[in-house]
Structure formats: structure tokens, C-alpha cells
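Board notes (copied after class):
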Amino acid sequence: MKIAVIVPAAGLGTRMGRSSAEKTGTSRKQFMLLNGAPILVHTVRKFAASGRVRDIVVAVRAEDLDWVREVVAREFPGRRVRVVEGGNSRQQSVENALASLDRDTDLVAVHDAVRPFIDLDTIHKVLDEAAESGAAIVAVAPVDTVKQVNRGTGRVRVRTTLPRDRLVLAQTPQVFRYDVLTRAFQSARDDGFIGTDEASLVERLDIEVTVVLGSDRNIKITKPADMDLARLFLQEQTAGEARS
């Protein structure tokens, strides 16, 4: 089975803010350094470690193409890791990367560039699930009570409490059969639909998306405080690898 991974990494990192930019030299979270390597590199390493992944495609902004290609060539010699130009949105970036894949690809996994703590076991579980069902995502159950609200002028008012047993918080990887994902992007493009993740595009085709339960450690690094947690997780990960 031919499996490809798309890592969209063209985001501008606006939520990191000015203070993070001053400390690290960039506010673009995917390029911030963890233990001397960009977060993006840590993320790609997880998929490069899987013998089941045939192709890894990283989508970046045009101005980053050359230096990211140099980093990738240095970090992953001999691995099929490619860098392509992304777009102005996540959806455009994933679609550009999708268009670069071989047409005989069986499964396509999409993973956030800033989720470097996904574990190999979860990667393989969601790949297996998607191979059987055609569409699967990693998600976790919410621990907080979730309220639906009305946002008008002035106060935000609670409308209702949503039952947690029917809710999950979507993470990545999100994995789909190649033909399913290409049809989903084509339909979205035809309709001018912009989704928040790849699953939301596939759901529009009335295709059932199944869920593999993930881990709270599979954090998405989006805010300055997330970097402190990421450093802690990396220390624990490195210590665990040294013991094994």
C-alpha cells in the first residue's frame, strides 16, 4: 500500500505574537526551534520513522522554498521528503501538495506541522482504520463541559450545554483514500467551500469519517505558552528514547 503524508507549513503564525518573534527570530511557529531543530523537522521525523510511509510532502510559502529544501535534504537524506509551494490558506496548501502526489497513491495522511508529539503507534492505528473505512481522523474526548453560545453585541449568552459523550476534539493525522480526498477538494473548489480541516471537506460527500482516539500530548503549538509545554514533552521524549 502506497501511503503519502502531507504537512501544510505555510501558516503565518499570527497567534504567536511579537514577544515570541523577538525571542526566537520568527513568529511562525512551524519554524521555531525546539532543541536546536525547527518544530517542522520534529514533526516530519515522526513520519519518516515509519516504514509504511512512502512519500512526505511539506507545503511552505514561496519565500521559504529554498531554505526549507536545504533543511529537509540535510535532515532526511535518502528519504522521500519533498517541499512544494503552498497557498494562502491551509486548504490551498494541502490541495497543492495533493496535486503533486503520484496517482497510484492509496492513502493520504494530512498532519499539522506544529503537532510534533504524535506517536508512531497512533499514526499506524489511524492508517489501519483509514485503509479499512476510507476516512479516519485522530481525536480526543473533551474533558470540559462544552457550551453553545449566542454571540451578539455586548454579552455572550449560553444557549445550551452540549453532551460530551457525542463530542470529540479533532486532531491530526487525518487520513483518507486518495480518491476520496481528491473528490472532496474538487467538490469544495467547485462550491467555493472553505473547511476548517480535511474531514469537513470529506463529510460534505456524505462519507462517514471514523475516529481513532489519540492523546492529549498530541498538542498543536499555537500560542507562546505552548512552547513551554513542548519543551517539557521533548525532554521527556528524549529521556524515554535514551532509556530504551
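Comment from the instructor: The two ends are 30 Å apart (CA to CA). The chain has eight helices and eleven strands.
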